[in-house]
Amino acid sequence: MWFLSVHMKKCNNFSKWVSVKGFFMQGDSRQFWPDAMRAFAILLVIVIHVSAPVVVDVTGTPIGSWVYADVFDSAARISVPLFFMISGYFLLGRDISVKESFYRSAKRVLLPLIFWSSVYVVLGAAKDGSLRYFENYDYMSLLTKPAYYHLWFLYEMFFLYLLLPFMRAIVKSGLSFYYIVFWIAYLAKGFFGLEVYLPFNSITTHAGYMIAGYLLGTSGAFSSIGKLGVVYEELTTWKWWRLLLVTMFSLAVVYTAAMTFQISQEAGRYIARYYKYTSLNVVLMSFFAFLSIKGLELNSRFLRRVVSTISINALGLYGVHPLVISLLDYGFFGMEISSVSLGSTPWAILLSVICTLTLSFLIVIAMRSIKPLRRVVG
User: Signal peptide span per the entry (predicted)?
Assistant: First the structure.
């Protein structure tokens, strides 16, 4: 009995830190389409980072393989905008105080940012092969640039969370549509090469995605613009509406890929002009994709749970997947797996994406079982 008592006490202490509860989320009571959008977005982020080595090597990659990678990358450019838009849909529909916005910034973004920055500083030391890396590392530089390429998104979200009360004020005042008009005008000037001064920066530019997400995701949000809003609401009930959106999205992808191909081939190097999240073509693609996924339903209970689980763990997947890409590229798991090492073909990209997503998911699930780490993975 004494042994059993001690054993149970140890188990209880261990359970304070480790729990297997919540691995697979219950998707039955959740709104499906936001989960589908978030899960789709994280998958496309992985596609971008897996296909990047192929896309940037314009002269060294066979033209056929490069075109496929270009198309994949073009379609995947909606990923980060979808993250911004779904955040706006959820957060701008209710009043948020300045105090709450600071709390959200610290809890939802700052803690994961500090954790993942630390992870990638350690990765840098591992690649360097020397502990002196930690001594020589410029830690103050983390205030101005991320420790790893993908962490810029968390920097951006940190400041956008701080701006939530201001964005909410724009929404409540009925000025959100007009903000979007000026935002698109700002993006259009760069798209068409016009030199017109409009005072937008990266933060207020990405705030446009959040406000657009609220507008496009909320029924009746266009009522403030009169007859045009009524026409839009009626159009969304048209039976061919989703097919039209998918068609427009596909055409925008073709345009993005074709223009990237043209300017990159002419320059003899990779030119990312049409890939930028602030380019007008990517904005329109993101709008078409958002509206296509909005209202989407799925009858399969199992698939709903899978999608819900990926969605809830999207932050962790975003944080860890470049680490997994590096480990696969270095052959850490017994063989080199990357889009380039497998031949730069479409199948190589697809296999690399599947391996990266699977291993990233397993790592995040393991991290989620440790209670102190749950806040940094979702």
Answer: none
